[in-house]
Specification:
By secondary structure, the protein is of the alpha+beta class. It contains 9 helices and 6 strands, in the order αβααββααβααββαα. A 3-stranded antiparallel β-sheet has the order 1-3-2. A 3-stranded antiparallel β-sheet has the order 4-6-5. A hairpin with a 2-residue loop joins β2 and β3. It is elongated.
Length: 193
């Protein structure tokens, strides 16, 4: 393969891998000699430097990585400091409410209240930093316990769980009825909060 054919392939590999990639692995993947691979990487590296690009390629002990040009860190920091916005769907809000009021709680307890699987919702809430793993329940299977985080409190403008609004018996009964109607249950669902 010619160097100009190797450049987009190596560029794609370094971009997709994100971290460092050893020269030998790139050379093996391209079925070329290690020296030819290094020459192509150095050509690509020089291209970024000549174009005053926001990207550069750095070497770390025989491995290469595509990185952001240090000259633009100031702008990256501005973006990184911006708060992340997450879309909380009805399912996520419902699951979050159950966790907030019943914590520490297991997935099976959440599923018993909701009547449906909650794996996706709990995973998303953990990813968003609103829910965290608190440990394991001392019971068969040692299920994971979940609870809310400081980010949850910050996002909802409360300083502690005790500040969450209390639900009246009428509201709880209405929620039970709504949940029963949604899942088509004729037997009552336990949603005691």
């Amino acid at each position: 393969m010619e160097t100009n054919e190797l450049l987009p392939i190596i560029e794609g590999i370094l971009f997709a891998m994100g971290g460092t990639v050893e020269v030998s692995k790139i050379a093996d993947a391209l079925e070329i000699e290690k020296n030819q691979c290094i020459e192509a990487i150095e050509t690509l590296k020089k291209k970024y430097e000549d174009e005053n690009s926001g990207i550069n390629i750095v070497e770390f002990d025989g491995a290469y990585q595509m990185c952001t040009n240090p000259d633009i860190y100031e702008y990256l920091i501005r973006i990184a400091k911006q708060p992340k916005r997450y879309a909380l769907t009805d399912v996520l809000l419902e699951t979050l409410s159950i966790i907030a009021y019943k914590q520490p709680i297991t997935k099976s307890e959440i599923e018993k209240i909701r009547g449906v699987s909650c794996d996706f919702a709990v995973s998303k809430l953990v990813e968003y930093g609103l829910v965290t793993e608190l440990g394991r329940l001392d019971a068969p299977g040692r299920p994971m316990l979940f609870g809310t985080t400081e980010d949850f409190l910050r996002s909802f403008g409360v300083s502690s769980i005790e500040e969450l609004p209390e639900l009246s018996a009428t509201q709880i009964e209405e929620f039970k009825q709504e949940a029963e109607n949604e899942v088509g249950y004729e037997t009552p669902i336990d949603v005691t909060i």
